[in-house]
Design brief:
heterodimer, A: about 475 residues, mainly alpha, 3 domains, two-stranded antiparallel ribbon, 26 helices, 4 strands, globular, B: about 375 residues, alpha/beta, Alkaline Phosphatase, subunit A, 12 helices
Amino acid sequence: MSTHYLAANRFGLGRRWDDPAIRDPRAWLTRQLGAFDPAPAAIAALPGRAAIAAAYLGYREDRQAMRREAPDMPMSEEEKGMDPELRRLSRSEIRRHYVDAAGARLANAVATPTPFAERLTHFWANHFAVSADKITMIGFAGNHEFEAIRPNIMGKFADLLIAAVRHPAMLLYLDQAQSFGPDSPVAQRVQRRQKQAKLGLNENLAREILELHTLGVRTGYTQADVTAFAKALTGLTVAGLGKGAGQRLMPADARPGDTVFIAQLHEPGAQSILGKRYDQPGARQGEAVLRDLAVHPATAAHIATKLARHFTGDTPPPALVERLTADFRQTGGDLPSLYRALIASPEPWAGAPTMFKSPWDWAVSTMRALKLPAIGEKQNVPAIFTQLGQPLWRPGSPAGYDDLVATWAGSAALMQRVEIASRIAGRIGDRVDARKLAPLILADAMTPDIEQAIARADSPGQALAMLFASPVFLRR
Amino acid sequence: MILSRRSIILSGITVAAAGAMPRFAHAAAGTPRRLVFVIQRGAADGLAVVAPTGDPAFAAARRALADETSGGAKLDGLFTLHPALVTGASLFAAKQAHFAHAVATAYRDRSHFDGQNVLEGGASRPYERDDGWVGRLLTLLPAAERDAIAIAPAVPLALRGTVPVGTYAPSRLPQADADLIARLTAMYEGDALLRPLWDSAVKTQELASDIGGNNGRNGAELGKLAASLMLPADGARVMMVETGGWDTHSAQRGRLAAQLRGLDQLVGALQTGLGPAWADTLVIVATEFGRTVEVNGTGGTDHGTASTAMFFGGGLAEGGRVSADWPGLAVPARYEGRDLKPTRSLERVVAGAIAHHYDLDPARVGKTLYPDA
């Protein structure tokens, strides 16, 4: 049994070098549910939505100006070494928001005294994934996690769902900000004026909520349900960032980057979704649908399966899934109750660590193990995770990153980890004694083989690299 | 900044984000002396680097490895140089190489960690000092000869002390060295998931930062880089270069030859790169301890005690000779019946070479570098 290692790595983010010994792993995890700080200093210090929106607007203006003035501006040395996606944005403030948010996320994950709660934050941020691929929302990606996910992971699933969906990052990412009720007053007016007006419904967000966020794929909803749900959601948009007809209708007090509901964009009339009629007026219609979806039995099973997989492995034990599903249904999606059921279940504690750490988990656990900084102060945090194969907030799809061993256990990926471990070990050199650190970090998952390999390493640095590349430490 | 950005780019590296360079005073004109300390991490087998082929017990103890140095330069009646040390042999002939044999630090156990700590820190026991002998040496040097740098991501213990020291590391991630790869291969051996992934990763791996890799050319690159950092008028004057991969528990013949080929090219590239400045340069190559006299069951040797230190440069006191108070290899002559017995202190040999190189009082150098001795 590797109870202590599993508590620290499967549930947590790896043991910190200065963590006191965990005496009762279950009590340690349960305590974190109450001690979780939704707005720790590193994150609270970041600029809010208004500043991010202003950066985007500034970027748009700059780019227009740049196109006019210097279409072929040469690249700086720094830009040449950059991810092309980031290079495009490097001259703007937007990139700084993304990079700073990534740095804050990492700093907080490395320092946190409540690593289980942080892992749950990362889990939910990935469940409600936004991918920073669109320039409009790249600056909002971190803010989505910090302001929509974090404050809601210790409440009801319905509130988490509504906050995640209504955040500007999601509205922009899944095109809700450009979705108009086909029979809304605005669409009618535009259509009267110009025959081929393109104003209309965008189903993207509605479909992904059903398929990814709530019920799960192929759970019986139809195209008609998707369309009706998309109509119910119309009116929900982001202030100040678009250029279209909607912008003129923004409420006077709305600041750029605010989520707003504009009645004149909303599809009038009742909608029928999953056999139920929704005739609430305005924004309340979409919210009513979301609240029903949040407690739907299919949602309970979908969430239970994903959560069980994250804490057991590729094929979660059916008994665990059923237990979590039942808990979700009984409590109406009370998340702390679900976490407590998970902690109390035997399945996540059974056997050896078999799940392959994601690059994020591996890097965070490595940094937590070290008293000395593993990376330089000026290190570009997103670049580390891009290199390791898990760009931050950029899974490339609204489904988020897979939670399977095969997703992360690749041969090039393994070599990347070994090289980064080697690099970090080179920085630390003899200032850490891996022979003393290993029993602390690997705890009850330490094997004689690893102990011996570390003791026989040809230098303190090599020993440290071997600890971080050891079969146990690569897993959780 | 001791180097112009241009010269760094020319040498194929950029400043690592990890180690910002401290600000150095500009060196005065003249021909300042230069020092390079090459550490061989992992315990290099002195008995194969400078083989006592004339010792009557050598062939029987070394068995399959007895001919490891065949074809190498005969240094005197007793010693043969490893054939991979081609530059080493010609420097020896030109009285620009000195090999000190049967030397060891004050450390007598066989842990790499502890042994390297003593070798670098210069204390008589592990973990007694948090500064190193090179770092302390800097306090004795004039400003023009004090600019020190390590080709490493962080300052190694040997260079730590009161004088600020720079570091340079290629900005690209270094590839894992061959020795680490071999050890991980063993570690992943029984792992059904990791083993096939690792095997395929290793197949596509080029061992770029390993001095033994690429038929010695990696060593040459490292030497070229080191020279380019030390040659400019305002360049570094003291340098430490790290090498790993000397822990040859198995298949020593091929591995050690590759390592020495890299080291030889490193020294050759330093000599070439420094040009006339080579005359005022001292290169010290040392390891934490030696290896067993007897060959083990896997064609390698295990952790031992005394080894060989190498000195290269244009102005050596003992150029062209192997210095040793030779203890002999017969079992009763060995340390604890198994290792080459240390008959001289490595610290004293190093202090002597340093005092000669910098024209300093040997007693003062000894006391500063090795205060506990």
